Task: inverse folding
């Protein structure tokens, strides 16, 4: 359950950075590296979980487990009043790894991971059958060079100005 957001401080960001590098790092090791008590790390960690700032997951390498077809799909919705309904339907597909409303030439941006190109074709066919999907434009990723979490260090400058 997500509660009201609280302001993250340098210690929270440090904990998050350690966990991004090694999600199995023990509270003891994090506490030693940050020179604080294990109880402090445990309390902060639990608050980060309760606030919905982090979720504990096992992140797999899609290629290593059999996803051989990655694609970016631009979706054009007509009439525009159906954007939310179309997005809600696309959200339900298990192949979808990223979904966002956009500005510009198209309405929705969808990234998918499929077993192979046949699976991708089936997905695009299903996508085109959603009421309101006027057109799609699919770009296949031949090779993914970077698949990462956000770099929390990018926020340090802004965080110190608050």
Result:
């Amino acid at each position: 359950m997500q509660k009201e957001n609280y302001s993250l401080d340098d210690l929270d960001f440090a904990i998050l950075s350690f966990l991004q590098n090694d999600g199995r790092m023990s509270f003891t090791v994090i506490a030693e590296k940050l020179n604080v008590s294990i109880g402090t790390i445990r309390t902060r960690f639990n608050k980060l979980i309760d606030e919905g700032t982090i979720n504990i997951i096992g992140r797999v390498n899609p290629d290593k487990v059999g996803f051989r077809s990655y694609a970016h799909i631009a979706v054009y919705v007509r009439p525009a009043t159906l954007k939310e309904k179309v997005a809600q339907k696309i959200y339900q597909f298990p192949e979808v790894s990223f979904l966002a409303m956009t500005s510009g030439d198209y309405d929705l941006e969808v990234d998918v991971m499929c077993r192979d190109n046949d699976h991708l074709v089936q997905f695009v066919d299903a996508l085109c059958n959603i009421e309101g999907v006027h057109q799609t434009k699919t770009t296949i990723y031949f090779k993914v060079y970077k698949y990462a979490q956000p770099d929390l260090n990018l926020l340090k400058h802004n965080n110190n100005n608050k």
Remarks:
- The first strand starts at residue 69 and ends at 77.
- The two ends are 27 Å apart (CA to CA).
- Strands lie at 69-77, 96-101, 108-114, 133-141.
